[in-house]
What we know:
By secondary structure, this protein is of the alpha/beta class. The protein has helices at about 5-10, 20-50, 60-105, 105-110, 115-125, 130-155, 160-165, 170-205, 205-210, 215-270, 275-315, 375-385, 405-410, 425-430, 440-450, 455, 475-490, 505-520, 555-560, 565-575; strands spanning about 335-345, 350-360, 365-370, 390-395, 400, 415, 425, 465, 495-500, 525-530, 540-545, 550-555. It has a six-stranded mixed β-sheet, with helices on both faces. Strands 2-1-4-5 form a four-stranded antiparallel β-sheet, with helices on one face. It starts with a helix and ends with a helix. The model is unreliable at about 325-330 (pLDDT under 50).
Amino acid sequence: MIEGKFWLKRQRGLAGNALVLATVLGTLSGWLIIIQAWMLSLVVSGVIIEGESLQQQWSLLVGMLAVFVGRAALIWASEQSAFVAASRVKQNLRQTLQDQIRRLGPAYLANRSSGELVNTLTDGIEALEAYYARYLPAISLMALVPFSILVFIFPIDWLSALVMALTAPLIPLFMILIGRGAERRNQRQWQKLARMSGHFLDTIQGLTSLKLFNASRQESRVIARISDEYRHSTLSVLRIAFLSSFALEFFSTISIAIVAVLVGFRLYWGELDLLYGFFVLLLAPEFYLPLRNMGQHYHARMEAIGATDGILDILQTTPQKHHKQSTGKQLDKPLELRFENVAYRYADARQALQNIDFTLHAGEHTALVGPSGAGKTTLLNLILGFSRPTRGQISINQQPLEHIDLDAWRRQIIWLPQKPHLFHGTVADNIRLADPSAEMARVEKAAVQAGAERFIERLPQGYQTLIGEGGRTLSGGETKRIALARAFLKDAPLVILDEATASLDLQSEQQIQAAIERLSVGRTLLIVAHRLKTVQSIPRILVMHEGQIAESGDHHSLLEQQGIYQTMVMAAQGEPG
């Protein structure tokens, strides 16, 4: 596994030339400091030693003003370039993470906390900004600016230059020694923040259930305890950070004082001219300033390393491999889906599916039922390409699925999950997810086919009405009808439904069921059902039990077998409602 600090260095290339430009501009600003100090020394020496008036120094004073303005411009440009560099890195990494999560698919997301993922994509990426915008330029300036100052000081005062050269390494040395402990604590702090973010998000999403079960006060106490623990751990990190800052300031102040004392005594004994002594005194604080800045920004490095744990966890997760062979062949229609002795194991070696054999013929309507944990969702993930079988083969029109471009395969599928997701945007935009290039006439036609046009027309701006993330402003039935409109707009040959009428009132269920019947005409249909009454009219029902297809037939033949299906039907009849 790649360590965070090495991975961070590898991403420098994403910043392009902006990071180099920031360093160059910062170095030029450091050179102007030397020029400014020399001009000020000339003014002071001329007035005090030579007895000249300020009017005689007017050209030097104007030059100092120009240098001051030039330094301000260079510092501003350097900071802007550093910000651009960090923005490029963040933008590229955020896009890379999103692409990786998309490749990993729902099978990966099901085992991850939404809060931790959101924290990684937001705060985790933002924590890298200071590393690229502050720390990396500071590292370069720490070497370039002090070296430039030594080049000018050494010919005129080798003793002060020697003191600076010997004391300068003490600052980064103690910074690293103290920073090691802070780095480990900071990594643990980021892990706590990720877990806390996940807990908070899960609590907010389940707030309604907590209220219903009168558990909100208990959960608030849990949140208070977690927050207090995070506060204490944060303070422990800050203690080390303040200790590091104290060490930096202490050694830089002592070093400047040594230089000042040496210069002062030699000025008193007449061994050094005021011009050169004052020049050295002016540059001494500027010599140690890049070292102190680097020490301050060293904490940005520690924070960035802590944030890389979540990022690398995503990037180093290997997605399911599908080896596409570029045969140039397109999928023929109608489609035939076939499972041949398919088995699947989870990452922890638990057996999820075994000996799955069935064929879904073109135009055939099939239902998949079974108790919770029987393997229905895993089988769907295999069909959709989110997972790959550990044994056996899935073929489409006698072509192995692993030889087919997954994007091309998924374009042949209409998938309506149990809880379809709506995104922040207009109603039309949410329907157009199935086909972003669709004209408005096709969007409206799809809504009519899904039975959604009536409630859409009642909305304030009709199809241009903004809806909240997750469809918060809509009812469950309205959300599913928009999802059905997507399905009609996509117009693919294979329809997969995962209990599309669950959690609906009777009227909405009837409307959704009627739209599904219209959608399934002329298409291959696979329904995953939890409520058996919705599949009694389906010609073929596959009954799953403990990862296998235990029974197969229509509703009446399965009842006559007096097996698992009959037990499930009797249990469903005994449930209320």
